[in-house]
Amino acid sequence: MRRPTTWRARVPAGATVGVIATGATHAIGLYSARLERAGYRVAVPVDAGDLQAVAEGIAAVKRGEAEAGGRRFARVVAALERRGADAIVLGCTEVPPGLAATGLRPGVPWVDPTDALARSCVAAWARARSAGAGAGTRVPGRARPGPAAPPGAGRRPKAGDARRIVRFRAREPFRPRGRQTHSGGHAMRKLSLVAAVVAAAVALPAVAQDSPTLKKIKDSGTITIGHRDSSIPFSYYDDKQQVVGYALDICMKVVDAIKAELRMPNLQVKLNPVTSATRIPLIANGTIDLECGSTTNNLDRQKQVGFTNTYFVTANRYVAKKASNINTLADLKGKTVVSTSGTTNLKWVTEENAKQNLGLSILTAKDHAEAFLMVETGRAVAFFMDDILLYSLVASAKTPGDFAVGNEAYTVEPYGAMMPRDDAGFRKLVDGATAKLYTSPEMATLYDKWFQKAIPPKGINLNVPMSPLLKRVLANPTSNGDPAVYK
């Protein structure tokens, strides 16, 4: 049987190779490092929408909705082709069946490395068994047929045919360097590697073995925390450019619980800034393990990510200059308003504008500070956001007395830390840590630190006592995303 033509035959060194994979795969350089060593330029999804499309596509294929997932992957394929990709590596097992279900015909070669990787692992196992039985000795059961080759795996593609999924050549892609002392050298080294992996898995605590997130944290020695830059007092930079806040303090208590569970007192904490637009995709694709900010937990978002127990309850309102004489939503008819990109507030005001035919001109800002600046400078009349964030922005303004937060509360917004969806082991640990904190006397002290005392960077005191509703929620921890629970 002829070997399939390798993808390198059609993609010369120096060309650009795109990679479709999760954020975690990109972070460890599983494909990019090897491609760059081979002399290729690497293109990866950079737009937040493309990152989210990969995560949603993977989830759809796992649910059995291959075509729906394929449509999301097709968006990323198009983006990589626009960036000049001469070939595209389908770096997740869900991508090939998803794209195949759409019937999309590529303009550049698609590379599926998983088939060759699987065959290489099977071959390594077989060689290890042969080496263990002695050179030239037939291993019992060896004649049993291996996994069937996929259709077309042994065909040589027709000349000039770039419109098919091509595969890596199955030739020991991870051959150890250096001279081998005997014919079983590769096999024994790979067998030792397998043994080491198994030993490491056995050494993991039971919860970590059940949790992909905890296993990743254990293996890397690092937990990655997503944080905001201007969500005062939840998660923001102080005057020393240190990340601080109420939500961050809560998340660091969770980190302490993870250190104890994994028996890793020296676990490193990596802080990764996020925006309202990127926070959900970065959790969904595995780039960050926990997002600690001012994120509303609702049923729609729970389809993409998980949430830990609620740590604050706020409401959707607007802030405007007192001189503008805005007292109700109707007073804003025909005017320009703003909200932050990727927020529930922006979604609400957009829907309400259409429903009530308000004729609003709606601007989007990259963060809360930029949105508030638009009101300060007159570019927008009002800024729709969670009231606690509006109070914080007003208190930090040059002239706080010039602004007023509206009296009408439009929606209930429960805040919680985001984490990966469908990771029961991680959820159990995080929920346990937060419930223990919320129901302890320490929680009242932590709340007072951020809401009833002077806080950086300007030493302002928000003077927001804990509401009866929040007291009830903290006394009975819940991660429910139904707003009716918080009324």
Quick recap:
With 487 residues, the chain is α/β, with parallel strands linked by helices. The chain has helices at 23-28, 32-37, 48-62, 66-82, 95-102, 114-133, 185-203, 206-209, 212-220, 246-262, 279-284, 344-356, 368-376, 387-396, 424-438, 442-451, 468-475, and strands at 16-20, 41-43, 87-90, 110-112, 165-167, 222-227, 230-231, 235-237, 243-244, 268-273, 290-292, 306-307, 312-321, 336-340, 361-365, 382-386, 403-405, 412-415, 418-419, 454-455, 460-461. Helices cover 39% and strands 16% of the residues.
Counted by DSSP, the helix tally is 17
How many distinct beta strands?
Answer: 21
Shape: globular
Termini gap:
69 Å
Largest sheet: 6 strands, mixed
- Please tell me the overall pLDDT: 82
Strand content: 15-25%
